[in-house]
UniProtKB/TrEMBL annotation:
Naturally occurring in which organism (per UniProt): Flavimaricola marinus
SUPFAM superfamilies linked to this entry: Homeodomain-like, SIS domain
Domain HTH rpiR-type: 8-84
GO molecular function (one): DNA-binding transcription factor activity
Phylogenetic classification of the source organism: Bacteria, Pseudomonadati, Pseudomonadota, Alphaproteobacteria, Rhodobacterales
Protein name: HTH-type transcriptional regulator RpiR
Gene Ontology BP term (one): carbohydrate derivative metabolic process
Gene: rpiR
The SIS domain, residue ranges: 128-268
Coiled coil region boundaries: none
PANTHER family: GLUCOKINASE, HTH-TYPE TRANSCRIPTIONAL REGULATOR HEXR-RELATED
Pfam families: HTH_6, SIS
This protein's UniProt keywords: DNA-binding, Transcription, Transcription regulation
Top-rank taxon: Bacteria
Length: 287
C-alpha cells in the first residue's frame, strides 16, 4: 500500500464501491472485512478458502475495490483497523445502556465526518461553490430525508441573500428541470445515488443546459456518473440505524462547508445580507 494513503480513506473506499459488486463479490468482501484475525501474515489462500472462492477471484475483487492486489488490500485494511477513526464505530446491541447508545450513535456520526473529510474532493468542492455562487437559479432535488438536507442548505443560502428552490415531488422536479438553462444549477441529493425520480430530473435539466451537483454516498452511483460535480459522503451503517443516519450528518457538514465557500466569494456582501436577514427576525424572538 502507498504509505501516503490516509488510513481513514480505506473504509470509505471499500464501502463506496460495494454497489458495483456482484452478490458473490459483495459476499467475499464482507467475508474478508469481517475477519477479526486479519493481519499482514494472513495468506490469500486462507482468505479464499474462507470465502469459498479462488485466489484469482480474491485478487480480482481487490483490484475492483481500487487496490493493486490482495496484498495491497490486506495492508490497507490492517492500517485502517489500526486508525483511530475505525475504532469509533460499534454495533448497537439489546444489552446497551443509555450511555452506551449515546456513545455509539455519536461515535458513528464522528466517524462519518472524519472519513468524509478524508475523501472529499477539494477540486469538486471549489467547483460546486463557484457554480452555486454564479447561478441564476439554484434548484434542489431530493426525496424523503434527502429533501431535509436540501431545506437546510437553502435556508442558509437565504440568510446571505442567495435564493433557491426545493423540490421534493417527482412532478415538480421534472417541471423545474424543464425550465432550467445554462445559467442555472441543480443540486441533487440522494444517499444511494440511484433514486430514479432524481436521476430523471437531473437528466432533463442537463439536456436543457443546466449544471448539476450530486450529493451522494456512492461515487460510482448513476447520479454521480451523471452530474457535472459530485460531492461524496461516506458512512458505516448498522442494522438499526442504517447508513442514512450517519451519512446525513456528513452530508449536512459538506453542504455547510459549501455554504461558507459560497459566502466567501463575496464576503462583504454576505455579511451585509446576513445582518439584514438576522435583523428581520429579531422582533420575532421573545425578549
Amino acid at each position: 500500500m502507498n504509505v501516503n494513503i490516509d488510513p481513514r480513506t480505506v473504509g470509505a473506499q471499500v464501502r463506496m464501491r460495494m454497489p458495483l459488486m456482484t452478490p458473490l463479490e459483495a459476499r467475499v468482501v464482507n467475508t474478508i472485512t469481517g475477519r477479526k484475525d486479519l493481519d499482514l501474515t494472513t495468506s490469500i489462500r486462507e482468505v479464499a478458502d474462507d470465502a469459498g472462492v479462488s485466489d484469482a477471484m480474491v485478487v480480482k475483487i481487490a483490484k475492483k475495490l481500487g487496490f493493486n492486489g490482495y496484498r495491497d488490500f490486506r495492508a490497507a485494511l490492517v492500517s485502517y483497523r489500526e486508525s483511530d477513526v475505525a475504532s469509533l464505530h460499534a454495533e448497537i446491541s439489546p444489552e446497551d445502556s443509555s450511555a452506551d447508545i449515546v456513545k455509539k450513535v455519536f461515535n458513528t456520526a464522528m466517524q462519518a465526518i472524519e472519513e468524509t473529510m478524508s475523501i472529499l474532493d477539494m477540486a469538486a468542492f471549489d467547483r460546486a461553490a463557484d457554480l452555486l455562487y454564479a447561478a441564476r437559479n439554484r434548484d434542489f432535488y431530493g426525496l424523503g430525508g434527502s429533501a431535509q438536507i436540501a431545506r437546510d442548505v437553502s435556508h442558509k443560502f437565504l440568510r446571505i441573500g442567495l435564493r433557491s428552490n426545493i423540490y421534493d415531488d417527482t412532478h415538480m422536479m421534472m417541471m423545474s428541470a424543464s425550465l432550467l438553462g445554462p445559467d442555472d444549477v441543480v443540486v441533487a441529493v440522494s444517499h444511494s445515488g440511484s433514486t430514479m425520480a432524481v436521476i430523471e430530473a437531473v437528466t432533463l435539466a442537463r439536456q436543457n443546459g443546466a449544471r448539476s451537483i450530486a450529493l451522494t454516498n456512492y461515487a460510482g452511483s448513476p447520479l454521480a456518473e451523471l452530474a457535472d460535480v459530485t460531492l461524496c459522503s461516506t458512512a458505516q451503517g448498522s442494522p438499526l440505524l442504517g447508513e442514512n443516519a450517519a451519512a446525513r450528518i456528513a452530508q449536512l457538514s459538506i453542504m455547510d462547508a459549501v455554504f461558507v465557500g459560497v459566502a466567501q466569494r463575496d464576503f462583504a456582501l454576505a455579511e451585509t445580507q446576513l445582518s439584514k436577514t438576522m435583523q428581520s427576525v429579531d422582533a420575532k424572538r421573545k425578549p
